[in-house]
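As a warm-up, study this chain.
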Amino acid sequence: MKSVSCKMNQMSREEIDIRRLLTRCEFMAKDDPHKDWKLEKYILALDDMIKQLQTLPRKPSKDTMMGYIKRIDFLKGLVNTTKLTSPVDRVAAVQMLPKSSTTFNDSIGPNITTQIHQKTSAKYNRELRAELFHSDKEDGIRQRLTSTNMHDDDLGAILKYNRNIQEKIAENMLSMTSSIKEHALAANAIIKKDIGLLEKSDKLTDVNTSKLKTESLKLQEQTQSYWRCWMWVMIAFVLVVFFNMVLFIKVAKKSI
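Now compare it with the structure written out below.
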């Protein structure tokens, strides 16, 4: 508990708000993403909060930031599956949801994300089986009427089902590739920006070092010139005193 408290104290207020809202969205999705219409609005708000967090000077590490983005993308994909009308489409879409969330550095995120994925996948599979069972019953009635076309109809349904699954998988793979590319470009832009700031800091340090050396040389030259000046003044003073003493001695002898 102490380590968690220390970690929370090191976070910015914006990051704490993101973690709390993200955890709430995950619990809402685990319950049932169809029930609460506010889930999609919360996810859109998380998108804006993540963009704002990336612009702050006190932002988390790149791994932590990518973890937040992946969890939000998972919730986006989950919400998008609820908008599909066909059970076949929903099963294909939920199978393509990112499953790499188990690597996130969060005590709640990995477990609840896995639970959401398993629960949603099981639900859509049940719906698909129910529809296929209902379709099979209708096929049985039609089979009694047209027994000669039964084999062709079943084969066509299987081929159509497999074709739909393959098309949805291909579409989701293209979508995931595009999303990964966007995240890579965003990370690349952040890295380039940080490198630019480091280069500016190095140049400023070099300029300050050069100025410091120049001022040190000037100070050293001035110190040496002052020392020479005082040395000549002391020599002149000694000579004046010496000549005055000689004159005083001569005058004193004459008076005696």
